[in-house]
Amino acid sequence: MIDFSKILFLDIETVSQEKSFGQLNERMQKLWSHKAEQIGKGGENATPESLYDRAAIYAEFGKIVCISVGFFNGSRFRLKSFCDHDEKALLKEFAAVLDRYYNTPDAQLCAHNGKEFDFPYIARRMLINGIQIPRILQVAGKKPWETNFLDTMEFWKFGDYKSFTSLDLLCAILDIPTPKDDINGSEVGRVYWQENDLHRIQTYCQKDVLAIAQLMRRYNYLPLITEDQVDYTN
Question: CB burial class (10 A; 0-12, 13-18, 19+) of residue 220?
Answer without folding.
Answer: exposed
